[in-house]
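Person: At home tonight, work slowly through the protein below, taking as long as you need, and write a paragraph about the fold.
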Amino acid sequence: MTAIQHDAAERRGDSAAVRAAASAVGCPPYVEVVTRVWRRAAWAAAAAYVLGSPSLTIVANGSTARGAILAIFPLVASVLCFMGVQKPMWRGGRELMVPAAFAAVVVWQFLSAFFNIGPGYIMHALPALTLLMLGLRVRVIQYELSIAEFRRCLASLLGPLVTILLLGLVLQMLGRIPSEFPSEIPLSVHSYRLQGLAIHPIGEGLLAGLTLLLALAARGNRVRLSLYRSITVAILILADARTAWVGTLAAVVLLWLLEPRRSSWRRLLPILVTIMTLPTIASFVLIQRAGGSDVLTGRNIIWQNTLPLLRQLNVFGYGPNAIALLFPDVGGPGSMISQAQNQWLNDAINFGWVGPFLLAALCLSISFAGPLSHRRMLLFPMLIYILIVSFSEEPLDIWNSIVQAFPLFLIFIVTSRGRNPLLESADPPTGGKGVFL
């Protein structure tokens, strides 16, 4: 077949003909193409993360140049990622399920910003929005990948993510990144929690937890993967982010339980180990922070003071970052709180009652995208992790920075394009030779 015949087969949606045409024109195996594109996208996102880090002033904070660079960088990367490979074609139907849900969230939040604050404030979200568009752009059709091939592709994401974590650790150890959060555990960085390039130690812990899940699901060079897993565990401990610890533990147990082709005894093993070590885990998780009124470090006070705000909501809420801009004292006089310390409560205050429902619809659409075997192996644990963290933090935010939007970017990348109900109960075929569809 010629390249023209290949394009015609792709427009018809004939995947078998597409693979045959790709083989005839000499395209590399699909798993190699996916690995190449994902590696490029991950390094581009890592560079955007470093440029957008509030801890590093590579470009002056608050400047127009900073916003333009951070917004344009992922857009350029979304084009460069496909150099030398077949560009993806968008189709309708189920493939648009996740992008449509994401578009609904973005449009509603932008309307809230427009009516509550003004059109100028919308520029705050553009850098994070372009990063998330990159994540949507480089999704793949996972039905063209077997479980083994998909795991090989995941390994291509780990190098850039571990680099971000290590760079933050080194800079904080050298004193280039100050931290204002004392650590309550022996493992610390100069007696402080590891903040790294994130806005807060919980952000560093959140990224470390997601990276650990990817590293546990990935397959490849055993020495390199063992090194990546060890580094992410160490970073997770140094961040002293208890919410991330609990979320990671639950997600790892779920990943083990849902992984395909595992015996019943091996599925029960992590539950037994967790039960046996529960007292030790609780002793770390229930440590009271220095200066905190209780184990929740004042979150109960914040929730108690923000709940009355829900009674006075208009249809679009108070607008993005309402707590920081309008109600900074909800944690007590002089507390200067920037969020409601709960994703769903914060979204309701910012964007009205519709906001959290749209976000829940986005999470639901992600959970239905792709082969069931792939979703059980990675996507379900990642979503559970995010949902647990969202109880006391705001992991799905696009208004503060690229750093805050990075967890959703990682979830988008591993979300499949398209969905075929006929293959839900079976592993997808091996990719053979194919193009980036």
Observations:
- Residues 30-52 form the longest helix (23 residues).
- The chain has 18 helices and no strands.
- Confidence is low (pLDDT under 50) at residues 1-19, 21-26, 290-295, 420-437.
